[in-house]
Amino acid sequence: MATQAPINIFDPSVLLDPYDAYAQLREGPALHFVPEMNVHVASRYDVVKAIIQDTKTFSSEYAVFFDTLRAAGIAAATPEVRAELERLQGELVEQVPTMLTLDEPGHSKYRSLVSALFTAGEIRKSEATVQAVVDDTIASLEDATAIEFMEGFAFPVPLTIIGQRLGIPEEDVPLFEKGATAAASGLRLTPLTGEQMIERAQTAVDLQNLLIRLTEERRSNPTDDMISILANARLEDEDRLLNHPEIQSILNQFLVAGHETTTSAFGWGMLLLCKEPDIQERVARDPDVLQTFIEESLRLEAPVQGLPRLVTRDTEIQGCPVKQGEIIFLRYGSANRDEAKFEQADSCKLDRKKAGAHFSFGAGVHACIGAPLSRQELSLGWKALLDMGKNFRLSPDQPEPQAEMSFILRNLPELHIEFDR
User: Fold this and answer.
1) What are the pLDDT digits (tens) for 390-404?
2) 147 neighbors 141 (Cβ within 8 angstroms)
3) CA-based Rg of the chain, rounded to a whole angstrom?
4) Are 188 and 71 within 8 A, CB to CB?
5) Does 273 map to a domain?
6) pTM above 0.90?
7) Are strands 320-322 and 315-317 parallel, antiparallel or unpaired?
8) In Å, how far are 263, 324, 418 from 148, measured between CA atoms?
9) pLDDT in tens, 258-295
10) What is the CATH number of the domain that holds 34?
């Protein structure tokens, strides 16, 4: 029999600060069953790693899980809102699995089409472009000594960079940024009014139409960007170009993964510096520990707290039985703080060896393809911030920063800080 979890880690109040609950789960068996979500939860590092490595038994083709969640959200709306949402849903192209929600060999078939953009050589070539975005964002702060950090820096830097990488024309940037923000917000649990639900759905349609238009334009006039690559890529085994559902699926994944994770990493990293002045002082004084700080801040507050896996056959994990068709939710945020893997796991240790051995960018065949770009943005961004200011601290007249509720993501919607130039 499955062991029921002693606490529902998906309860909204727990999601705000899940780490005590994670610790409780790690002390027990390899898996816990959460009846409220009808899923098993893997919280320990060794268990998460084993499941990630066994892609045949634990499949990434779990899209039905999110379809169920979306259907539940729509069902709670009024009949009028539901009708409008269904109408707008009808304007979207078919949802098809490509990279994140596809197993091998299909996963690599699509991933290989864009992997050339994220090689070490390409990342090195992009350094000047990333640095320019960082510098422009710093300059936009002018002489400020108090800012809302998420809006002022953490949000615009990654979003501008992924927009450039995709090839969004300047005149379409406002719609792109609105659409990318809406796509990420769809993974959160913040309650929406019927009007807000409709607005978000309309934004998804508008963004889709923009990306389809750009895809068609780049088929005739390709440039050096991701949309051009996808627009002209051929699936050799089928001898055809990618269709619009496939291209939309890939681009939508980059919309969220390309900015949300880095934005969150900047936010949680800044909060860590504000709360740990000794760490802030050492990182500012010793550039050699900056990369360890980046990895530790990613480990402590994983921007992606977890993802599901679909069980493909009856099996067991360290004595815990699971059946074909059941869902296991991997909790990266818990595994990253497992004392069996990381000594003093709840602390930022600037001398930690192998600090990058966390799951904040996933692992295995589905490891985040954009992780090198994200690390580059974080490295250049933190250098610029620490050159700009010192004594970063929380604004005393603002409420304590708090995470936004989500089954998947962990982000700070607001972070008000002060600093000295």
Assistant:
1) 999 999 999 999 999
2) yes
3) 21
4) no
5) yes
6) yes
7) antiparallel
8) 13, 47, 9
9) 788 999 999 999 999 999 999 999 999 999 999 999 99
10) 1.10.630.10
